[in-house]
Amino acid sequence: MSLTGEFKLRVARRRMVHEQLIRHGIHDTRVLDVMGRLARHRFVDDVLAARAYSSNALPIGGGQTISHPRIVALMTQALALRGTEKVLEIGTGSGYQTAVLASLAREVYSLERIPALAERAAMRLRELGFQNVHLRSEAGLGWPEQAPFDAIVASAAAPEVPGRLLDQLGAGGRLVLPIGRKSRQHLMLLVRRGDTVTSYDMGSCRFVPMLGPANARAGAGASTGADDREGRGATTAATNRADSGENPGARPPASPEPPGQATYESL
Q: What is the pTM for the complete model shown?
């Protein structure tokens, strides 16, 4: 790419941060810093590079999309990462949010059910030098052998909170995921405090449904392996309504720290 082209993309990235993130309530300086530096255009096809910093979800293949920047920032901000966490991501997709998480946390364990997407994401993350990402191509609901996780994020909608994900959430951990059917979804933050899980509604959203071979109990297009359990005997407190730009109960964001040096699991 020419120097002129790279300069235009840097300008578009700065504009994205100010117009799409800060103006819409994203206030975590660590998230803003990472998304202001990370080359989002590297995670889409070259023909879409000029649109990478627009407020649109862009196709990445396999019927999937890369979420628009504000949603990525909102979900990441809600996790309140400080640099020491072990994070589970359900749905690697293009690898863009994986890279954002890996820039903010100690380790990221990411699952992608579509092999072609997993391969491309692994290649991009290697090229960008990330060494603290573990990536698998499978449709499972989590990575139980690595639990507990300090934070979990899912980029596909489940009809209800999957108990298997709550089972893998550690003490004080945060889970962010869309809940609901295709026509009515809400982005939810769940925070574990002792034996209680408190939920916060961060606003309406629209994501593709979770899919997988183990979804028969929850119905077609439902979460992989979702069940009726709330996880680890936890009780769910009354749902709180949170403004989309806020991070209810968040810990104060810490200054940026470099990615950890965990082994990268290539495909």
A: 0.81
